[in-house]
Amino acid sequence: MMNIEQLGWNSYFADQFRPYKEQGLSVGRVLREVRQQYTLYSEQGLISGDVSGHFHYTAMDRSDYPTVGDWVVFRQCADYAQIEHVLDRTSGFSRNNAGSGDREQVIVANIDYLCIVCGLDGGRNFNLRSIERYITMAVEGGAQPVIVLNKADICTDREIALLQAQSVAGDIPVHMVSAITKEGVDDFSMSFEKGSTVAFSGQSGVGKSSLINCLLGMETLKTASLRESDLRGRHTTTHKELFFLKSGAMVIDTPGMRELQLWGSRKSLDETYSEIHEAAKHCRFRDCTHQNEPGCAVRELLINGSLETERYENYSDMQTELAFIESKVDEKKRHARKAKDKQLSKLIRRTMKNKRK
Ligand code: GDP
Ligand code: ZN
Asked: To pair with 80 at 20 to 30 A between CA atoms, which of 10, 167, 184, 270?
């Protein structure tokens, strides 16, 4: 039997849980979600359930609902869990929900490390600009980025690849591995601390599935024991979506994580491109667009060669994309405010009417 510390339970969550515990409620981590049916791992083992009526009633937004990786407070009714509350997340990854415009849908929560997988097979699977985007996304989501250069076995010049990756990585660790020959995989797998949660991201074709299968192959024992002792033979797919590395770190691999889209903020963009952000403070004009204004410190970086044109262009693209997302979010907020105002004035009118009676 596992204890919940192994699943990443720590004082941040324990502090939030205390008042609920006093009310006799239980806590568990969401391992799986299929159409709002949740599988939780709790101190008592695996249990499934859904959110309570009260939860539905008070939830304001899609992002308030539990998602894979969340710690939830639940009431146990026989062998069913009625989820009452989601503990505050340390991190969360979202995508724009295609079906409903720009509403934020959290795909996975409480991830400590986001592994950005690239493929060293030449061409588009190893793209520094795309790594920068993923770094921004990881920072924005609240996870630490880790760069994984896969397909080392067919890389013609590893040293150059490593240098290139390090040029955008800064302090972020870079691992060179091969899912085929398994070289580097052990070191990579051991680099995460016990109780931490790891997720994988990256363009399709870089070898995420292969790498995850490779890791899974090395760790089958632990996965099997979680499955057999706790699921009592019921068939689920938790084995693929959640497993443990040798180091005791937990891997969460939900399908949605692989199709992550940019849902960032200016802050994380500025963090990723800190030198541009710094330089921009020294532009002569506060609203400098860095196109052709005199006294532009960003263009100065480009001219003296300390900023690559490609890096700058990527920054500009992301800024445009962000501005678009932000304008949509603002629009949504305006709509919500309007609707609330309307409701309020209705309520006031009704109250006045009643008073007059
Ligand atoms: P995903 O789309 O990111 O999940 O990528 P896949 O795991 O499906 O891998 C895409 C292709 O790359 C497949 O043909 C794999 O066999 C191949 N591949 C994955 N990892 C490696 C590796 O380390 N070395 C080599 N040579 N090929 C790999
Ligand atoms: Zn400027």
From this structure: 10
The alpha carbon of 206 and the centre of ligand 1 are apart by a number of angstroms equal to 6
- Is the pLDDT at 234 greater than 50, yes or no? no
Q: Which of 183, 210, 254 to mutate to test the pocket of ligand 1 (most atoms within 8 A of CB)?
A: 210
**Ion ligand 2 contact residues with beta carbon within 5 A:** 283, 288, 290, 296, 298
- pTM higher than 0.85, yes or no? no
DSSP letter string over 272-304?
Answer: HTHHHHHHHTTSSSTT--SSS-TT-HHHHHHHT
The pLDDT tens digits of the residues spanning 159-181 come to: 999 998 998 898 999 999 999 99
Degrees (nearest 5) of the Cα angle 305, 306, 308?
75
Residue-by-residue DSSP string for 135-196:
HHHHHHHT-EEEEEEE-GGG-S-HHHHHHHHHHHHTTS-EEE--TTT-TTHHHHHHTSPTT-
User: Would you say 26 and 43 are in contact if contact means Cβ atoms under 8 Å apart?
Assistant: yes
Cα-to-centroid distance, 234 and ligand 2 (Å): 61
At residue 12, what are phi and psi to the nearest 5 degrees? -60, -45
Q: Which atom of ligand 1 is nearest to the CA of 212?
A: 7
**Per-residue pLDDT tens over the stretch 64-115:** 899 999 999 999 998 899 999 999 999 988 765 434 445 567 888 999 999 9
Residue 265 CA to ligand 1 center (angstroms) comes to 32
> Cβ < 6 Å from ligand 1: which residues?
150-151, 153-154, 178-180, 202, 204-210
